[in-house]
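[Meeting: bench + compute handoff]

Bench side (C.D.) handed over the final construct sequence. Compute side (W.E.) agreed to return the predicted structure before the next meeting so the bench team could plan truncations. Sequence as handed over:
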Amino acid sequence: MSSSLPRSNAALAARDLAVLWHPCTQMHDHETLPLLPIVRAEGVWLYDADGRRYLDAVSSWWTNIFGHRHPRLVAALKEQLDTLDHVMLAGFTHEPALELAEELLRIAPPGLARVFYADNGSAAVEVALKMSFHYWRNQGRGAKQRFIALSGSYHGETLGALSVTDVALYRDTYAPLLLQPVFTPSPDAYAAEPGESAADVAARRLGELRQLLQQHAAQTCAVIVEPLVQCAAGMRMYHPDYLSGLRALCDEFEVHLIADEIAVGFGRTGTLFACEQGGITPDFLCLSKGLTGGMLPLSAVLTTQDVYAAFYAEYRSGKAFLHSHSYTGNALACRAALATLGVFRDEPILQRNRELAAHLARTLEPLRAHPQIADVRQCGLIAAVELVRDRRTREPYPAEERRGLRVYRHGLEHGMLLRPLGNVVYFMPPYVITPEQIDAMVAVAAAGIDRATE
């Protein structure tokens, strides 16, 4: 029916605004902010209904790590469609799910032994939180009911995940519905005191966490962190020493360590998993986004044999982990994930990412002198630029001025999808971007920053 209707940007936007409610959006904005109907995608490019194209500098919310419609992933999905689309994973299994679990455990940090599937990143965090709590309950330590998270953390927007999130924009409205975690100061290197290095900040924050654990360990299930980069908080970055120190503290005080690598996993920070840079294995490793190359929703929680064993008992013991999603281990999504891991296995992705990251660093270097930029930071193929009203004092622009939105608008006008986080302009491009495209991406962003800070 719809194929005969007009497919211009204006026509599709009008139809959309009559029926849809978009995520992370004040819909009133679209009275003046154009809604962009995308009709096809290829590689780094998105194409709208009027034939314009946009370089996807944020990998469509950090998912499309190999760009859009990677041929190997497309072929794998077409092949899978010929045999099995979906079957419930309770009481059944299938080769894509078990092969993916085998491969994930092969490449993950050592010591992880079991894979539990869910549908998206928030769901993976929910699984890890519940599984940690339930583990301690099964062990006869029911007083462990709380969690510790970093200030500025973001772990999702379902209620459990939101409970361990410390971004006021998302959390404040729903605070009455949430668990009450303990927040420990972030090791964010941007918060360094005069003369402090990033490693010094990490050491200081570990000392503060030690004090918290001394007070709260008996009631604490787990500490949850985003390794190396707190993405939604404005791409806040910290030294790997914090991870190794955190692992030691969790072991000492008998609490779990949950690593939320939903955004930073699969090569984004320069290693396959960010945890590798701290030399650690978490008790729970949460994965999603790049897991399927951005093709389909899927998440996985990897955990240890010790955790698994705490639930393994006769049914009447009441120890089973009774958590499920209808699409758990969907065969199509698992096959897309297997194809994604196949690309990592067969191509020098990590080496190429390091080369692209070095080029991105060189391209960003001139922005360090900009009078309204307080910081240019980078971790692998994640980079961020901090806009401020006063560079000397680091006084931020008031949020209501929406300076980042001006950069976003400028980007769209010049064929670039940039989606700043408040006053932080960041880059998280697909791994298939070229050095020339990086140059264009940064040039458009720089011009947008000039325009936004006039």
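W.E. noted at the follow-up: The mean pLDDT is 97. C.D. will use this when planning the next construct.
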